[in-house]
Prior knowledge:
Elements: H1 2-28, H2 34-55, E1 110-112, H3 116-149, E2 151-152, H4 155-167, E3 175-179, E4 186-188, E5 194-198, H5 207-222, H6 225-238, H7 243-268, H8 272-284, E6 295-296, H9 301-311, H10 323-340, E7 349-351, E8 413-420, E9 423-430, E10 433-435, E11 442-445, E12 450-456, E13 461-468, E14 474-480, E15 483-485, H11 489-506, H12 510-531, H13 536-549, H14 554-565, H15 570-586, H16 590-598, H17 603-616, H18 621-631, H19 637-648, H20 655-666, H21 671-682, H22 689-700, H23 705-715, H24 723-734, H25 739-750, H26 757-768, H27 773-782, H28 791-802, H29 807-818, H30 825-835, H31 841-851, H32 858-868, H33 874-889
Parallel strand pairs: 1-7, 3-5
Antiparallel strand pairs: 2-3, 4-5, 4-6, 8-9, 9-12, 10-11, 12-13, 13-14, 14-15
Helix pairs in contact: 1-2, 1-7, 1-10, 2-7, 2-10, 3-6, 4-5, 5-7, 6-7, 7-9, 8-9, 12-13, 12-14, 13-15, 14-16, 15-16, 15-17, 16-18, 17-18, 17-19, 18-19, 18-20, 19-21, 20-22, 21-22, 21-23, 22-23, 22-24, 23-25, 24-26, 25-26, 25-27, 26-28, 27-29, 28-30, 29-30, 29-31, 30-31, 30-32, 31-33
Amino acid sequence: MIETLNEAANWWWQAGVFTLVIWLVLRANSRLSAATRHAVWCVALLAIVGRAIWIFIPQPAPAVEAMVVEQAAPTPVLTATPIAEPVPVPVVHLDVAVPAIPAVRPSVTIPLQGDRAAIALLGVWFLISLILLLRILASWRAIRRLANESTAAPTVWQQRLANLEEQTRSRRQAELRLSAHIATPIAVGLFRPRIYIPAAFQNALSEEEFDQIALHEIAHLRRRDDWSNLIQKICEALFFYQPAVLWIVRRLELEREIACDDWVVTTTGKTRPYAECLTRMIELAAWNRSSLLATGAAQRKSQLFRRIEMMLDPSRNRNRSSKLTLIAITIFLVGIAMEGFRLHAFPFFSQIDGDVADQAPVAPTMPVAPEPPATPETPVTPESAMAPEAPISPESPASPEAPPAPVPERHGRSHMTWNVNSRYLDMDIEGDVQFSDDDRDVKSISPGGSVAIGEGRFVSSRRYEVRADTNGTLTRSYFVGGVRQELDSEGRAWLAGLLPETIREMGIDAPARVDRILHKSGPRGVLAEIGLIHSDGSKRIYLQELFARATLDRNQLEDAMRITRAIGSDGDKSRLLIALAPVYFRGGLRATLLDAATSIASDGDRRRVLSSFIQQDPNNTETLTGVAKSAGGISSDGDKTQVLVDLASQYRNHEDMTQAWFKTAGGISSDGDRRRALSAMLAQPALRKDVIVRVLRTAQQISSDGDKQTILRESTVHYSEDEAVRRAFFDATNSLNSAGDRAKVLSAIGARAGLGGATLGEIFRSAKSIPADGDKTTVLIQLCGLVNSERPVSDSFFDAANSISSDGDHARLLLALLSRRNLGSDVVVAAVQSAVKINSDGDKARVLLQAADYSTDPAIVAAVRKAVDSIHSDGDYRRVMSVLSKRAVM
């Protein structure tokens, strides 16, 4: 029993390591579809659970094999009674190297008295698992009750579901039911599949929305998610103490829903309408706790927003991977599981009365020292590869706009429902309906038409119906709890309070109502009416109608913006701010408008609003500065960067705007996005010197050498001999760790015309600190043309040249320098003196022979003759002296 507990304890942490490896593999293969990731996590869960089951299966005792190690005779044990002499164990010698085993292996153990503690632990596990399994059984019974209490769906819906199943070739035909006991659509039934739709959705969904929800549930049944969900719930109940199992179960729930979303989008080819459909369910659903065994389109509200965001990402792979890919990944996971669960195990539990045999360490075999490599010749050091640029983070998709309150048709039939303040409200309209001026009753209905409004609470319900006969004569009916009653004073008071509220929330005749309220109470009355509305969509409609029909004063504009700021839907708020922005720009209320924009939580919507502000008011510094500050609150690097790019195109040399822009740019964590923002700023003409310094200081904080060198090369267009610009440029350049990238930057700045001595000295000093000889030599060769007779410049150049450790690269640089014909005598002498530091006689002789071309200058000849004395090779010595002698004769 103790051995079993030790294996189980080690399985607890080994499963976590195994899960982490799988997560890293999937993260490295981000292009895998959600269906593939779901399959991978299923295999991982089965591997972990299978290992746990294997631990508790009794294993046969292993056969005793011959030991091929040297053993000593056991020590006799002294007892009160004589014992037989111990049988000596034969000594076996094998000429094999045995790896060293440490004498002491520390471990943390928990002593147990016999098996009682182990049995107690198993008892606790059994009790908790039984409770969790009973929850699954209770969920199954709840599903049985759901089947008995539900009703058949409308025939039209059943026919549409059958058509969808036929089009998608679904083998599991489902029965469609309506239920008042669920908040969201679900698919259940292991042997008799059923799709349940909330009864509240019956008259609230369009045909397209119903098709999208039905396709999602068909996807669950096609994938047999009900069976896989049952298995994972059982695993979760049995292994509740294993964090790896619980975490994998959460991943499976998310990947399963995303896979079904991808299937719907792939089948219909419509992404945004499906996202709007899911958003519609957010408004309609009450979000009650669903059954453990149910799968559906909107089971978790927290997951739903994540799914919408991923759905709107155009770069995702929505296609299911091939079976070959799944087989390969499965084999890989099984291999990891087999090896991973054989990792080093620790004895967490031990017996108090157990004996531990000491094992003497085996002396390790001494390794044979390798022969030292032959001294290589002096080849030219290859250049280092340039670091790649970091990828640009994608922009976050804009949040889908909340659908506006439905407006009934003036002809035909409309049905609307919504929930507010624990009440269920519905309204049916058929024909052309006119309400009274005070919105407290129905004024007229076209012949044959009708209108009905109802309110349902937890324990009561009321309904008011008005019907018109063929002559247009109205008949009014009032029902309480389904029983018809006379419309008394209490009923009229109820109707007078409910009907105006319904008209407001539904957005019915919003233009006419705004006109009527304006005529009676002015803009202040319309604002008061909007303050009574709960629906974000209706608030937006009323505000747009108000601004289209009236001119508001400053106080009214501020009140309207306070209402806008309080709108919960980021989609409606952003749409409204974009539409109303010109009015606030003209009214000098930019601060009020920008404050409302800052209240938008969605990164995509805030980016869309701020970019529109830049386009609508590009010449106002207050607007541009406020936009830069508001962009600092965007968490998505992609969206934040896009706002800064838009701002850079309208950049003004204004200190407040400059500070706000660079403060926001400094908050970008993605190297690729920060580089993109700085590149947009550098693309602007006639930047001030202090702005260039800010760009360079911000670039210095970029960790990616590829992105940093891109900015530095682009900044050379704006480079000047100003001390602050020069210091910022070379501080950023010297922070490059990549030798190839630094060489690239130095080559770019060296190509500038008219560089001063201070800049040239900085270039050569920066080149000196390049660690790779190949890159250092290449950049110094490219900068040879900058070497002149000014002592500080030439000293910096040769100081960098002398730091080259490779003789081949050192000689290559000096030969390139001496190949120029416009060198001064002091530069050639310095080159000859640098050649003395070359250890290779062959490379040194080549440089001196090149310097001999300047033998007409006595100072150069004297320097070469002195340098020849450092050559040890007789052949190289004679070769150089021979050339010098011939030149002297000539």
